[in-house]
């Protein structure tokens, strides 16, 4: 893959800070990572709905959805997984610049890949959300029937079975979906955003009271 040459960055007169001011909230990426079946997509969907109801500007990037378009040419080899996350990181960075709270739901099994995305963003703009769930529980849930296929040898290089998952070392948020209900998980996430200044408290109070 070649690199671009003879290019220059063109600054905009409308900055990220201006967009954030108009939106009345900061922008950041909540990066949901965890095993297949851990509840990443479910939690991100529920959080996006809750934030939208609070008047927060959001967009959600989901692993399967992105592979229908932007990353449709990528497989699941280690190199393709890394490129998958690199592209998503760049897209998420653009959305943060647009002033949007962006939710991403990807297994993203490699710690270095996740850290690479963190370095793209400014301080405190990358919020790693570790969706914690044992392989055993994920396998019982198996919403797509993927674990069964992996056990039968129909899928090779499946994370948690014959491919590694590197757990986050120090994530900003841990959601234990074997202990927390979906409602509790959403509240944990919103509380974090509120207490760390991403969402103005008055937005939550004002919108909650109708």
Features:
single chain, 210 residues, Rossmann fold, five-stranded parallel beta sheet, 9 helices, 5 strands, 43% helix, globular, disordered C terminus
Q: Outline of this structure?
A:
The protein is α/β, with parallel strands linked by helices and 210 residues long. 43% of the residues lie in helices and 13% in strands.
Secondary-structure map with pairings?
Elements: H1 16-23, E1 28-33, H2 40-53, E2 58-62, H3 63-66, H4 78-97, E3 101-105, H5 111-120, E4 126-132, H6 135-141, H7 146-151, E5 173-176, H8 182-195, H9 201-208
Parallel strand pairs: 1-3, 1-4, 2-3, 4-5
Describe the fold and architecture.
With 210 residues, the chain is an alpha/beta fold. It has one domain (16-132, 164-205): Rossmann fold (3-Layer(aba) Sandwich). It has 9 helices and 5 strands; from the N terminus they run H-E-H-E-H-H-E-H-E-H-H-E-H-H. It has helices at 16-23, 40-53, 63-66, 78-97, 111-120, 135-141, 146-151, 182-195, 201-208; strands spanning 28-33, 58-62, 101-105, 126-132, 173-176. The chain has a 5-stranded parallel sheet with strand order 2-3-1-4-5, sandwiched between helices. Helix 2 (40-53) packs across helix 8. The protein is globular and about 55 Å long. The model is unreliable at 204-210 (pLDDT under 50).
Q: Largest beta sheet: what is the strand line-up? A: 2-3-1-4-5
Shape label? globular
CATH architecture: 3-Layer(aba) Sandwich
- Count of structural domains: 1
Terminal Cα span: 52 Å
Overall SS class: alpha/beta
Averaged pLDDT: 88
């Amino acid at each position: 893959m070649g690199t671009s040459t003879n290019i220059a960055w063109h600054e905009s007169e409308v900055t990220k800070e201006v967009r954030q001011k108009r939106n009345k909230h900061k922008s950041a990426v909540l990066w949901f990572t965890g095993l297949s079946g851990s509840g990443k997509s479910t939690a991100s969907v529920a959080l996006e709905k809750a934030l939208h109801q609070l008047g927060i500007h959001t967009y959600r990037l989901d692993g399967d959805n992105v592979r229908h378009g932007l990353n449709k040419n990528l497989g699941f080899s280690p190199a393709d997984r890394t490129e998958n996350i690199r592209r998503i990181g760049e897209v998420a960075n653009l959305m943060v610049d647009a002033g949007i709270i962006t939710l991403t739901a990807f297994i993203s099994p490699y710690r270095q890949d996740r850290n690479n995305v963190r370095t793209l963003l400014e301080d405190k703009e990358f919020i790693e959300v570790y969706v914690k769930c044992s392989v055993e529980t994920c396998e019982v849930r198996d919403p797509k029937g993927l674990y069964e296929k992996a056990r039968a040898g129909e899928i090779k290089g499946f994370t948690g079975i014959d491919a590694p998952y590197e757990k986050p070392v120090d994530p900003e948020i841990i959601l234990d979906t074997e202990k927390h209900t979906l409602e509790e998980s959403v509240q944990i996430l919103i509380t974090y955003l509120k207490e760390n200044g991403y969402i103005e408290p008055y937005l939550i109070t004002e919108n909650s009271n109708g």
